[in-house]
Specification:
The complex is a heterodimer of chains A (244) and B (195).
Chain A lengths: L1 E10 L2 E11 L4 E5 L6 H9 L4 E10 L2 E2 L5 H6 L2 E4 L6 E5 H15 L7 H14 L10 E2 L5 H15 L3 E5 L7 H13 L6 E6 L3 H5 L4 E6 L2 E6 L2 H9 L5
Parallel strand pairs in A: 3-10, 3-11, 6-9, 9-10
Antiparallel strand pairs in A: 1-2, 1-4, 4-5, 7-8, 11-12
Helix pairs in contact in A: 5-6
Chain B lengths: L12 E5 L4 E8 L5 E9 L5 E10 L4 E10 L5 E10 L4 E10 L6 E11 L5 E10 L4 E10 L3 H9 L4 H13 L8 H10 L1
Parallel strand pairs in B: 1-3, 2-4, 3-5, 4-6, 5-7, 6-8, 7-9, 8-10
Helix pairs in contact in B: 1-2, 2-3
The chains are: A alpha/beta (244), B alpha/beta (195).
Chain lengths: 244, 195
């Protein structure tokens, strides 16, 4: 599904990713772990086409297409979703208006008719209920005045609405209490099908107890220095990242 | 009453607000015209209230000049001004806002805010708030900002599949929403799209 080869990326003059190779197959959940500053968030930003990051070398192929030639919105329509580490506030725009605009644009790009207002609201209500969100949430301005946990839950809600093919969760577990973490994990697991894949970026093992990854990568100083199975999580927990 | 040194403007609209009355003024300037608004308001009686909301959208080589003079002449009057707008093209926008609080006009509350977004390098916004306070017990503030559309918001929306142009429209409407008069949202949305 996703193939990253020799990926180098910079912000300004600073090279952050220094040759990443990563292949993700259909239905797989990959964890990317590493210390602060390793380039984990940069990987998520580059995959979603954040304009301030520049790819200087390498290729990314997503479902047979050259991802690097696609705009952020085209990547979304193709099924890529990033749960932001720091979700952005949009004053004056309600969650309903925001999600309506997002779904309408995607359906248009896919050649599907726009959802009727009633259908949209029903879908939104269902997804909110699954994530145990108060229905009043829909009327609130996007992320304005939300607690840390509410912001993360709102990210997972958007993910549930957009049903991405590839979800990238950037530190979604940070700032969540155990109950919120379980709800988020349920949301991620609900999307776990043989067709869909995820990348879970984290430096804790908390979320990985609830969403078990198939493959674990250790990212350090812009490179993947170790790839293995779940046993790596335990090794990191007991001996940290210095061993790699 | 009748402090001769506070001169009213020579031209433009002039309003007087009597004790206990409320005056609401709403201004909308849409693309396609150069326009000046020049308004002065005297809060003449105790407990008079004033609310000004102004919205401008300008592009091309349009010139917009908004000038307000709010004069708190007596005690316990309140005024609130919110002026927001977006300048594109090579538009030139200027806001002058003067608030005068006369001697003895204690209990005055006067607030003025002017926020602007520039869309291009060529667009210019100049904003000049001015407070003249001759009383002691007053609450007055003014704030002015001029900035660009936020790149973080834009990327967040695009990452959810909202096309860049649509995302910018949503951002602009979100910015303007506190000054959009009731019933005129569609018209203003159309103007924002055309900017």
């Amino acid at each position: 599904m996703l193939s990253i080869q020799n990926l180098h990326a910079s912000i300004g003059d600073k090279e952050i990713l220094k040759g990443i190779d990563l292949t993700i197959g259909k239905g797989e959940v990959h964890a990317v772990m590493g210390p602060n500053g390793a380039g984990k968030s940069t990987l998520g930003a580059v995959l979603t086409g954040r304009p301030d990051y520049e790819v200087t070398e390498g290729t990314i192929t997503f479902m047979g297409k050259n991802l690097l030639e696609m705009s952020p919105e085209e990547r979304s329509w193709a099924g890529i979703f990033l749960s932001f580490q720091y979700p952005v506030e949009i004053p004056g725009v309600s969650i309903t208006a925001f999600m309506k605009a997002a779904l309408a644009a995607r359906r248009k790009a896919q050649g599907l008719p726009e959802l009727k207002a009633g259908e949209f609201l029903k879908l939104q209500k269902e997804k909110m209920a699954e994530l145990k969100m108060n229905p009043d949430f829909a009327k609130r301005e996007v992320n304005v005045g939300f607690s840390g946990g509410e912001k993360k839950r709102n990210e997972i809600f958007q993910m549930a609405m957009l049903e991405p093919v590839l979800s990238i969760l950037d530190e979604t577990d940070s700032g969540l209490d155990v109950d919120a973490l379980k709800i988020v994990a349920d949301g991620v697991n609900a999307l776990r099908t043989p067709e869909r894949s995820s990348i879970i970026i984290t430096h804790y093992q908390k979320l990985l107890e609830y969403v078990q990854p198939d493959v674990v990568h250790v990212l350090k100083a812009g490179r993947i220095v170790k790839t293995g199975g779940r046993e790596l999580i335990e090794a990191i927990e007991s001996k940290g990242f210095d061993q790699f | 009453m009748g402090h001769g040194r506070y001169i009213d403007p020579i031209c433009g609209n002039h309003y007087k607000v009597a004790a206990g009355e409320t005056l609401q003024l709403t201004y909308v300037i849409l693309p396609g015209e150069s326009r000046s608004i020049d308004v002065s308001i005297d809060l003449m009686g105790e407990g008079a209230n004033l609310e000004i909301k102004a919205l401008y959208l300008s592009g091309a080589d349009e010139k917009v000049h908004i000038r307000t003079l709010v004069h708190h002449r007596v005690k316990n009057c309140h005024s609130r001004q919110l002026i927001k707008g977006i300048a594109g093209g090579s538009a030139e926008v200027r806001f002058d806002g003067v608030i005068v609080v006369a001697p003895g006009a204690d209990g005055t509350e006067a607030f003025q805010e002017n926020h602007n977004i520039v869309l291009t390098e060529e667009a210019k916004v100049e904003t000049k708030p001015q407070l003249e306070i001759y009383a002691d017990d007053v609450k007055c503030s003014h704030g002015a900002t001029t900035g660009r559309l936020g790149e973080d918001e834009l990327f967040y929306m695009r990452s959810r599949g909202i096309p860049e142009k649509e995302a910018r429209t949503l951002q602009m409407l979100s910015f303007l929403s506190p000054v959009i008069p009731e019933g005129r949202r569609e018209e203003i949305e159309a103007a924002v799209r055309g900017l």
